[in-house]
Specification:
It contains ten helices and nine strands. It is α/β, with parallel strands linked by helices and about 290 residues long. Helix 1 runs parallel beside helix 5, helix 1 packs across helix 6 and helix 4 crosses helix 5. The radius of gyration is 22 Å and the shape is elongated. The protein starts with a strand and ends in a 9-residue tail after the last helix.
């Protein structure tokens, strides 16, 4: 890790994988934006603490998702080497102290639901957004906002957390669901699996009078792709009349080939939520085990 990150979970909500994600997001952001080794303090708080902080520090009586408190005054020039030099290195960390980031876990969870993506993606975005503020990026003007947004997307793509338009994949899963064979459950499921080179394979649930022989849409899509010589996947969309979260067996099969897979869940009433497979199956059994 190139950055020195002090992480404080004041809300008491972080799992080990959340802590690892925060460290990776910040380390990647600083590494991609600066040639200097930096140190940063990160606090994760709840709504009440964030609201109090906003009230005391900014005179705003409401919660926000992230706050940044830079120690360097950049004066409109992000990552200015001269200002890094004036800041100097800490004798303890041998790094430049760029300030503090405060993340609101409650807000991150709400926004992940609102925007239809994973908590992992939202937390990554807030970390990157906060880090860029510490390095002098801002969004006060349209021009500055465009520069900052482009940098955010560049970093999130490196992290595998870029924004993805799942609409076309969901449409394919919906179409596929019309071919499901579900005379017993009457619960038709369609899945559309995208490979790393952009090809899509679909699958549906196929039930059987001997219930144990039923095969899920997700696994059928994987088996079709593997049969065609594909073993690297980026996204899967799963469509049904109510949110069709993959069963444990499907999660394990997906993890065999794509532990970092994005899983898009959709229904006819417009519900859409994206998870990472690691969120759905945090401790999968893999080849290395």
């Amino acid at each position: 890790m190139s950055a020195v990150i002090e992480l404080y979970d004041e809300a008491g909500v972080l799992k080990p994988e959340d802590e690892a994600l925060i460290n990776a997001a910040l380390d990647t952001a600083f590494l991609m934006c600066s040639t200097r080794r930096v140190s940063v303090e990160v606090s994760v708080v709840d709504d009440n603490d964030m609201r109090a902080l906003n009230r005391d520090m900014r005179g705003i009586d409401r919660t926000t998702d992230v706050l940044s408190f830079p120690t360097i005054r950049w004066r409109g020039v992000p990552c200015d080497d001269k200002r890094f030099e004036r800041a100097g290195l800490s004798p303890e960390t041998h790094a430049v102290d760029v300030g503090e980031i405060v993340l609101c876990a409650d807000a991150a969870r709400r926004q992940s639901v609102e925007f239809g993506h994973s908590f992992t993606r939202e937390l990554s975005f807030l970390c990157v957004h906060g880090a860029l503020h510490l390095l002098g990026f801002d969004h006060e003007s349209d021009a500055d906002r465009a520069v900052m947004r482009a940098k955010e997307e560049e970093i999130l793509k490196r992290l595998g957390q870029e924004r993805v338009d799942a609409g076309p994949l969901i449409d394919l899963a919906e179409t596929a669901s019309g071919n499901a064979y579900a005379p017993y459950s009457h619960f038709a499921v369609g899945a559309a699996l995208r490979t790393s080179d952009g090809e899509v394979f679909t699958g549906v649930n196929v039930e059987n009078a001997s219930f144990g022989l039923t095969s899920c849409a997700e696994r059928n899509a994987v088996f079709a792709a593997v049969s065609a010589g594909k073993q690297a996947f980026t996204d899967i969309a799963v469509y049904a009349k109510t949110p069709p979260l993959p069963c444990g067996a499907c999660r394990q099969v997906l993890a065999e080939f794509a532990p970092d897979l994005r899983v898009h869940i959709a229904t006819p009433d417009g519900f859409h939520r994206t998870y990472t497979l690691k969120e759905l199956l945090p401790h999968s059994f893999a080849l290395k085990n």
